[in-house]
Amino acid sequence: MSAITHYHAHIYFDAATRTQAQRLVETADKLFQVKVGRMHEKPVGPHPRGSCQLEFGTDQFATLVPWLVQNRNGLTVFAHAETGDEVKDHTEHVLWLGASEPLDLSKLT
Question: Deepest in the core among 46, 58, 66, 70, taking most CB within 10 A?
Fold first, then answer.
């Protein structure tokens, strides 16, 4: 396996949970100084529904992921390593918090 350079955590939401997801993202940013992506209202890339991406370093994994486990409040979170292999990073190097959802792997190179 290639070296893990950083991680992404995608917070999934729909219209009913958008505000909850935004609060989670904003709190994570304040506590961990993560790089926060846009709130995508529709599926983007391989993701099956609205989401917001948190990008964080390998040094933050041990604190951020347990925090997400305890604070996701029913939201689904898809986390994955970034190694430079998009397919493996979205299929093998993954962690689901909550129920897993099918990804559209045809969107990956």
Answer: 46
The domain in which residue 97 lies consists of 16-101
Number of domains in the chain: 1
pTM flag (> 0.90)? yes
Contact between 28 and 73 (Cβ < 8 Å): no
Segment 19-52, tens digit of pLDDT: 999 999 999 999 998 999 999 999 999 999 999 9
Can you give the CATH number for the domain in which 66 is found?
Answer: 3.30.70.1240
